[in-house]
Amino acid sequence: MVVSSRQLEKAQVKSSKTIKLGVVANEFFDLSIGRMGGFGWATRQVAKCFQDESLGVEVVFLSREAMEIPDPEETLIHGCRLIPRHPNFLEYCRRIWAENFDLLLSIDYRPNYSPLFRILLQTPIIVWVRDPRTPEDVAKIATIRIPGEEDIKPQGLWTPDCTSLGKVFQTSQWLGRPVLFGTPASFLREKVLGTYGVKNAEVALLPNIIDIEPGEITKSEKPTVVFLARLDPYKRPWLFVELAKHFPDVEFIFLGKAHFEGKGAWKPEGLPENVRLMGHIVGEEKIRLLSSAWMLVNTSIHEGLAVSFQESLKCETPILSSVDPEGVVSRFGVYVGRWDGSGMEGMPKFIDGLTRLLEDHELRTRLGKEGREWVSKTHNKSRFLEVFQELCTKAGVNYGRDEG
């Protein structure tokens, strides 16, 4: 790959182990400014990782969605400055240029990222591929319907066309600007072409930073299962409720809240007595609930490598799910098979899978411990930093290396 003279000059003058990293996203895992999804979780983990000043990375968040922010000059999210979009494009450009970024970390890719990539034509980019959706994935997601509302298209199913990244990639090659790719799961590599229109991309395994430490695990005396996700149609939470009706002696706990309201949103009404709505839970309380649960139930129609899977397994809680990314569910739980649409036709398989895990204590224990071992070894801060440094080297960014 051709490296421009400007990039070589920057590499020569930049101090070792000191870089400014712009993290590009549309959400930042903060209810005060928007959604609480997986992309936002990734921004938060990067911020937490580099709060260690010895690592020499200054993180600045770059929002590509319009946000109501009281004072953009003073706003800190997870300890990092947040630069929002600006109605005056020239003023926005000036502010971005003044930051003198060494590297951009793109949390997946959305079409509204591309103006920023054009503003910073010489700045290397790492695209952290998290939830790429091919045309086949988009078609599958579009089949979702809320039971009893089959004539209404649910909210939150739309997926933007992300193939414009292919043009960004091609233009960057002409300019000598490195655009690199990383992903937390190897199976996502094969989705890069269909999702982004990027041919022959090399995709490194850039792991998630699963940093929760549950300590010694104690499961609840009463059988308890948890649902850890937004309560939106995309996740099909009605299947969790339907499952609860078949197991009145089991406690079913929703951990999460809805992003959408009104027509086409799911409303948690008429819930069985054994279903609890806990809302968005974080910190020690979240770890306690995951650790005490007998299993995690996931009813989504589509997932990347779900962070909820990894957090649950870190808490030695096996998984029952209708998706099996990277074979994680087959290895550390029970995969009930693919069920499109409302998913209600798959309820017998959900019932069988839940029954199996409830009745087999030794199986649950073994799967939980094996899952925790896998997450601890493969998705941690040290592994993330190791691969991040390798990507920086490929991008011509002098981070983590001695000068000279």
Describe the structure.
This protein is α/β, with parallel strands linked by helices. The protein folds into two domains: 5-209 and 380-395, Glycogen Phosphorylase B (Rossmann fold, 3-Layer(aba) Sandwich), CATH 3.40.50.2000; 224-378, Rossmann fold (3-Layer(aba) Sandwich). The chain has helices at 5-13, 38-49, 89-99, 114-119, 135-141, 165-175, 192-196, 238-245, 283-292, 307-314, 328-332, 347-359, 361-378, 381-395; strands at residues 19-25, 57-63, 76-77, 80-83, 103-107, 125-128, 179-183, 203-205, 224-228, 251-255, 275-277, 295-298, 319-321, 333-335. The longest helix is centred in the last third of the chain and has 18 residues, at 361-378. It starts with a helix and ends in a 9-residue tail after the last helix. 42% of the residues are buried. Residues 1-16 have low confidence and may be disordered.
In short:
The protein has 404 residues and is α/β, with parallel strands linked by helices. The chain contains 14 helices and 14 strands.
Kindly list the characteristics that best describe this protein:
404 residues; alpha/beta; Rossmann fold; 8-stranded mixed sheet; 6-stranded parallel sheet; 14 helices; 15% strand; globular; disordered N terminus
